[in-house]
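note to self — DONT lose this again. spent like an hour looking for the file last time. sequence + predicted structure for the chain T wanted, 120 res
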Amino acid sequence: NETTVHQNEDETEGFDQLQDFEGFEKIYVFSRDGDIKELPRGSTVLDFAYHVHTEVGNKCYAARVNQRYVPLTYTLKTGEQVEILTKKDREPNRDWLVNSLGYIKTARARDKLRHWFRQQ
């Protein structure tokens, strides 16, 4: 049936487009303890911090990747080991929400950060 063939082609095309967005848009990094974390491609160390736990993100003051200090805007790559350094009295910085500064790229981190500022 000709209609069925066209429907299947449309479904396949949609699946291919989904793979383009989903399948190749992830990175895999290691926590300091060796746990593997999956994040969207383009994630920063601050995105990683919020992925681990909201309080880790909120209290983050520095980060190390592969045992070297990096800026909080550092974009992670697959296979890197990430360590987030926190301080008890640290609070998030409003600059982290400014897109052009590049601190956070993921909606998850942005939502957690906005929630923190709404509570203040």
